[in-house]
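Practice record 12: protein with 6-O-phosphono-beta-D-fructofuranose.
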Amino acid sequence: MARPDWTDLKALERVPLTKLFADDPERLALFTADVAGIHFDWSKTHLSREAVERFAALADAMGLAAKRDALFAGDVVNATEGRAAEHSAERYEGAAESVARAKAQHERMRALIDAIEAEALGPVRHILHIGIGGSALGPELLVDALGRDAARYDVAIVSNVDGMALEAAMDEFDPKATLLAIASKTFTTTETMLNAESAIAWMAEGGVSDPYGQVVALTASPEKAVAWGVDETRILPFSESVGGRYSLWSSIGFPAALALGWDAFAELLEGAAEMDRHFRLTPTRRNAPVLAAFADLYYTQLRGAETRGVFAYDERLALLPSYLQQLEMESNGKRVTAEGAPVEWPTAPITWGGVGTDAQHAVFQLLHQGTHLVPVEFLGVVEQEDVLSEAHHRQLLLNMFAQGAALMAGRANDDAARAYPGDRPSSTLLLDRLDPRTLGALLAFYEHRTFVNAVLTGINPFDQFGVELGKEMAKAADAGDLDFDPSTNDLIARALGA
Ligand code: F6P
């Protein structure tokens, strides 16, 4: 049974960042990498040559290479659910059979997109995408990051069961010109099914004679979609072995593929595939997802960091922290090993973040002078895409670089309130541009980094039983089983009169 032994790593000498730079003239070259249009810089983390060697030894002991091969081979890597985790096959990197299946499913999606473009389903102007968790966060990020100028349709992604969320979309859209995309791997998620029913009712009330004729289902449970009323020809299936939070590459990405065009979606897949190949074939010490995970583990395991902050200095990546929250926390927020034994070390830190420069004026006080150690990740994009003067882009990026430098350098002051301790870690991801290909590579990087973190902490990143209990209790309450604890019973009675 694989349990990580942190002894050697915990014995590492604690060297301040400025000394790490002073002691090693090659530091910048050693702790940076360029992959698929992204420049990665971990030089302002406390990773040292020695730390990397010890993490590499731990990776060997935990069987990282074999586990990575098993992931790409489509073996059962999610033991608790007896499943493979074949998101890379959706990028055509994986077991031949799975890749062939993904290609056929993509072809089906492409044909439906062609038909919609040709108005075979009537004139479509709006896409109302209903889904939650992994069935919403990925497509929403894609559309927001890439579709601000380029979207060919209006897209609303509604996830919350709060009626306000659906109402907002309904207010904007003409039901007769709306395509309803219902995204649910299981096609049983209560929020999604209720929102979908209400959307159908809205269409009927809005004069659509056959609302189901305007529905597309994105699901791994096609038979449930048929039973719900979706025509078989408009079901875009994906494989059961693609996890919800890893599913934007599958038909779950449909609203992005339709809004941005098929070529953009194909490029997204290609960018991700490039990162897949990098992860699969690059030696540990130059491997971007592996080094990033080493830096993550340095802080969670050796320095007691309980959170990690992600700050994109680009409005188009505003949704990245939410997307990463599900990817990282639903994957690695575990308390037992892959074999079911309790872990005696931390697992996933809490992922949080925001956009720069806004976050500087809200939460950065704590990063510079607070009592928490927060490893920070900055993301910036070299190519300016706004049409305003260069001054905006220049200020944006210079602010990002200044924050990283300030966190590391600190500044002494006789007045303690005005002193900055420094030696606070950050890493920087600099994207050449924010296009589908680079975004694909970026998101695949995060997936693989999450996987490496899981392997080195000995947990299964592909199940998510933690989300079930509350769901079951809400369902039971809805069915009339209101026998909770006294406080909850009281709250229910006050709020709902039940
Ligand atoms: O509640 C968590 C979860 O199961 C996620 O893992 C998933 O992405 C989300 O619900 C939505 O599930 P589905 O796509 O089956 O509706």
